Amino acid sequence: MNRRKFIRRSVSIAGLTFSLPFLPKMLWSKPLETQSSIFTITSENLKVSIPKLIEALGGIEKFVKPGNSVGFLVNSPWVHQGYYTDPDIPLVLMQMCKDAGAKQIICYKAVRDGYWEESSLYEEMKPLINDIVYGEDRVEVDINGGKEMTSASMYKVFMESDVFINVPVAKHHNGTIYSGVLKNLMGASSRDTNRHMHSPDGEYTYGKTEYLSNCIADLNLIRKPDLSVIDAAVCAVNNGPRGPGDTISPGLIIGGTDPLALDVYASGLLGMDPNDILTFTAAEKLGLGNSKPDDIKVISI
């Protein structure tokens, strides 16, 4: 079974796994410890759905311990719906982390002006928002095992935070076809690093797809997210990363701990063939997660 067929079947399976708990055991023959489980839930009422999603993943206490500093990587720069993460999602997650005893909430990259104000939770979340720490200083980090990159300039707090939570939006990207968990890590690296990821000579181009894809995979060798939550409520299907353009509405929030498996599934929701996305091929070669259908279990909540 190829990946495209897997995506189509996963959607139908997801509707059954909730009512037939035994079904995953029948459909996936590989031992559970070799599989990557990803969970989906409707994007309606995020204050209710996101806690349910995290509970299915083992609860926020599985990821955050009292006294931890928790860092978030949020895709916030753009202004057109479907091209940036709904601010309600990171805010709900941040509050859950605070309730679990986190001592500090960090946004590695400062959000654009007006981003938090767009949240339907802005007024009630003002105290939390006011306490968010943003990345400033950079450090040079070695990349062991990278194909194209041997080092990258990263936010210092990215390297120092106890917990890393990645919160991208699933969308089209002109340089890599798809942008999600793996691509979002470029938000934690410097502008100079990002420019040289687009081309070896620092030209800011989308024309060197294979090189950029390999660099994104290399960058993800630095640090794997402890938890990733993808906004797949409204997703751009062209003119990424900034738009404007056409969008679709899968109406889902997707969570898990395997960045590659999450991206493979989410890209299929956008009508993309994961086999066409070179970032996935590069990430798989570096051992960054599962990309094969038999290695991924999708469970709808």
Describe this structure as you would to a colleague.
The protein is α/β, with parallel strands linked by helices and 301 residues long. It has a single domain, classed as Rossmann fold (3-Layer(aba) Sandwich). It is 33% helix and 20% strand. It has eleven helices and 14 strands. The strands form four sheets. Strands 4-3-2-7-10-13-1-14 form an eight-stranded mixed beta sheet, sandwiched between helices. Strand 8 (171-173) and strand 9 (177-179) form a beta hairpin. Helix 4 (88-99) packs across helix 5 (122-130) and helix 9 crosses helix 11. The longest helix is centred in the first third of the chain and has 15 residues, at 3-17.
Strands across the major sheet, in which order?
Answer: 4-3-2-7-10-13-1-14
CATH class: Alpha Beta
Mean pLDDT reading: 90
Q: Please describe the biggest sheet, giving its number of strands, its sense, and whether it closes into a barrel.
A: 8 strands, mixed
The CATH homologous superfamily name equals LarA, N-terminal domain
How is the CATH topology named? Rossmann fold
CATH level-two architecture: 3-Layer(aba) Sandwich
Kindly state the percentage of residues in helix: 25-40%
SSE class: alpha/beta
Short description:
This protein has eleven helices and 14 strands.
List keywords for this structure.
301 residues; alpha/beta; Rossmann fold; eight-stranded mixed sheet; two-stranded antiparallel ribbon; 11 helices; 33% helix; globular
Which helices and strands, and how do they pair?
Blueprint lengths: L2 H15 L5 H5 L8 E7 L3 H11 L12 E6 L13 H12 L4 E4 L14 H9 L2 E2 L3 E5 L8 E5 H5 L2 E5 L3 E3 L3 E3 L1 H4 L6 H8 L10 H11 L7 E6 L2 E2 L10 E2 L3 E5 L2 H11 L8 H8 L10 E5 L1
